[in-house]
Design a protein that fits this description.
It contains 8 helices and 9 strands. It is of the alpha/beta class. Helix 5 (142-152) packs parallel to helix 7 (199-207).
């Protein structure tokens, strides 16, 4: 299947993608590898912005389940995403890619504050924009932040980088005969609880007609391939589902 060429995209990465083979924290080699993938996609002429999670450092919902106040835990998770964004910025700029970190929680010493028109201007100037600190509010995931920023930036698609090459009828790591969807509707993702992103994020993309492209970010060169319409991925979009 030939997918359309998306010009402006938001790339959502989990914090775990920065861990490499570790169990915690930031692995410089893993970050450098991701930066290379992103730089290659940028070299194709795409306008890129990113949202990265913080689960490699601190996961708010997990901490809340162990007794932390949920709002406090979520704010701590947002700070973790700022650390990840700075790590990616450092790796990208080592490759000569002009990058800006915009944080939803103002911290002038390390990043710019998130201002929509400023972010749009950075994209127009060819810079990669890293959105940090989620939405700036507790009780929202970085998936929802990614969908929100994709809508605000008028992105053509939201690319969700995962450890599998798309969306399956069941967990392919547990069910051997699980089948991958080439395309699937937003309605089916929500009704079947396919665990692509949280429901708020999926609904926000649906309402703003922003396709979600799920692909394997861990496979070398795959981001550029999927952007060119050649790689393996699942596209979530409005309309009927197709297997």
């Amino acid at each position: 299947m030939t997918r359309p060429r998306f010009n402006r995209i938001l790339l959502k990465l989990s914090g775990e993608a920065l861990m490499g083979q570790g169990q915690f924290g930031i692995d410089p080699e893993a970050v450098a590898g991701l930066a290379g993938e992103i730089a290659a996609a940028k070299a194709q002429g795409h306008e890129l912005c990113l949202v990265v999670g913080g689960g490699n450092i601190f996961r708010g919902m997990a901490a809340a389940a162990k007794g932390f106040d949920r709002a406090t835990a979520d704010y701590m998770g947002m700070l973790a995403t700022v650390m990840n964004a700075l790590a990616l910025q450092n790796a990208l700029e080592k490759l000569g890619v002009d990058t800006r970190v915009l944080s939803a929680i103002p911290m002038a010493s390390v990043s710019e504050p998130y201002i929509r028109r400023r972010a749009l201007r950075h994209l127009e100037k060819g810079r990669i924009v890293l959105f940090a600190a989620g939405t700036g509010n507790p009780f929202f995931t970085t998936d929802t932040a990614a969908a929100l920023r994709a809508a605000e930036m008028s992105c053509d698609a939201l690319f969700k980088g995962t450890s599998v090459d798309g969306i399956y009828t069941a967990d392919p790591k547990k069910v051997a005969d699980a089948k991958r969807y080439e395309t699937v509707s937003f309605g089916k993702v929500l009704s079947d609880d396919l665990k692509v992103m949280d429901a708020a994020a999926v609904a926000l993309c649906r309402d703003n007609n922003i396709p979600i492209v799920v692909f394997n970010i861990r496979q070398s060169g795959n981001l550029a391939e999927v952007l060119a319409g050649r790689g393996t991925a699942t596209v979530v979009q409005n309309g009927e589902s197709a297997s």
